[in-house]
């Protein structure tokens, strides 16, 4: 098995192995770790194992031709979390949610020089839940990818696999997301804001700036549109201003709403910088806010764990 070297992880950035390295070490599986998989030492070590086939999942490096063609069959396969040729690239799951797609899926393809452009052996669609986050969808797709990769390996071993070239003219790219992509623009409509919040969860996280001086940012990790009666919102006689906080009059209603371009958004999970993830009700008990305050999306420079 091949994985990345140990990296700094978590809040303290303590050096630790990748999840796949941990699994290999605990199971006694031979493990190779290189800064660059294309270096001569790595290629020579891999060649000693005389592999029939290579399987790549979320490796995070460009794989050069000497490695791609090293197995006896002459290629590697990869499980990619989209219905190729749509959403080639580093963030296909989050991008599908951001774009409001109803379906995504997993494709098993051959690894070639061009990113996620190889011929496809198998693909399966998956419906995206209305309130599903990237973290939740990632888990579902990873389980599907494991099943499809096994199915593809069996087809390859039985010499019944059928490869279909992608329609490159229909390809789209899902670039790697940065922290800045999590900035919420309350001038957008509710559906767009909800998609951004759910797409960025759990990391890098969608954020907005709290109105108090020096209060920093509030990260919103899950949200939904508000569909209840306007009478449960303080000051409901006025249309919401983008980014405006309103508190509920009705104790049975969601305690907090935020105004958007066309209505209200309900945060379901929130987090202050350095704090724990909590419900809006728990947040308001420790950090009381007044209705009518305005949030914005300007970054404060504070980081979250």
Topology:
Blueprint lengths: L1 E2 L3 E3 L4 E3 L2 H9 L4 E2 L6 H9 L5 E3 L8 H4 L7 E5 L11 H7 L4 E8 L9 E8 L6 H24 L32 H10 L6 E4 L7 E9 L19 E3 L8 E4 L4 E9 L7 H7 L19
Parallel strand pairs: 1-4, 5-6
Antiparallel strand pairs: 2-3, 6-7, 7-8, 9-10, 10-13, 11-12, 12-13
Number of E-state strands:
13
The averaged pLDDT comes out at 89
Question: Beta fraction of the residues?
Answer: 15-25%
For this structure, the CATH topology of the domain at 179-286 is: Methionyl-tRNA Fmet Formyltransferase, Chain A, domain 2
Number of helices: 7
Q: Termini distance?
A: 30 Å
- Contiguous low-pLDDT stretches (5 residues minimum) are 297-305
| Structural class by helix and strand composition | alpha+beta
Radius of gyration: 23 Å
Looking across the biggest beta sheet, what order are the strands in? 9-10-13-12-11
Fraction of helical residues: 10-25%
- The H/E string reads EEEHEHEHEHEEHHEEEEEH
CATH architectural grouping of the domain at 179-286: Roll
